[in-house]
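Key result, reporting period 2: structure in, sequence out.
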């Protein structure tokens, strides 16, 4: 069974998630934006074997620590979709602009596309390409656990910004309605910032995307 622990990192309080297979204790980290000592302390405390880095998208608060962590532990970087190449290329500039530590450049070991899967231990998650916040944004969905790690596509009561380069408001709304809602009303999502919610709750109450 998939388990996870969410750890807010960086001054932007980005929800970095450790996800692991309960059978094997093999783990991936989703969106290591920074504060790597805190993340590695949690890995150790949980007794996990960290094996992969998964990225939803390449904004600095989600991807800023990726290059350093991958290099230090020789970890593969999985995702995002190639549409975010320009954001990866711009990470050093992003780090300066927002006052983050210098971001090490990196090249993903594996790009992701809509319909792909990722695996950690015995747990397989589905990948959906959900552009709008960024062109290459992806979401990781575990039907078994009824959990989705959605980055900055959707929040409790809100949606992702679309005023950054490559953002597209109509595309974001389509991603939510066409790719997230079919995952089911009972599915709980872990957003890039703020509290968890369920797709059903957002369909009822979110002013941006309610039915």
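The corresponding designed sequence is given below.
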């Amino acid at each position: 069974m998939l388990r996870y622990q969410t750890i807010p990192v960086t001054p932007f309080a980005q929800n970095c998630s450790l996800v692991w297979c309960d059978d094997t204790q093999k783990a991936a980290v989703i969106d290591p934006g920074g504060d790597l000592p805190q993340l590695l302390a949690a890995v150790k405390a949980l007794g996990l074997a960290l094996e992969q880095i998964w990225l939803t998208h390449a904004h600095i608060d989600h991807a800023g620590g990726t290059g350093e962590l991958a290099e230090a532990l020789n970890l593969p970087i999985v995702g995002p979709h190639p549409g975010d190449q320009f954001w990866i290329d711009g990470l050093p500039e992003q780090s300066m602009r927002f006052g983050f530590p210098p971001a090490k450049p990196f090249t993903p070991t594996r790009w992701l596309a809509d319909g792909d899967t990722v695996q950690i231990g015995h747990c397989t998650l589905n990948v959906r390409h959900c552009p709008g916040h960024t062109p290459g944004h992806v979401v990781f969905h575990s039907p078994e656990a009824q959990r989705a790690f959605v980055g900055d596509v959707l929040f409790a009561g809100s949606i992702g910004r679309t005023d950054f380069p490559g953002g597209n408001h109509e595309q974001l709304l389509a991603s939510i309605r066409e790719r997230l809602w079919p995952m089911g009303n009972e599915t709980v999502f872990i957003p890039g910032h703020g509290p968890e919610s369920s797709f059903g709750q957002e369909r009822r109450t979110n002013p941006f995307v309610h039915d």
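The chain has a mean pLDDT of 98. Residues 132 and 172 are 4 Å apart (CA to CA). This case is discussed further under Risks and Mitigation.
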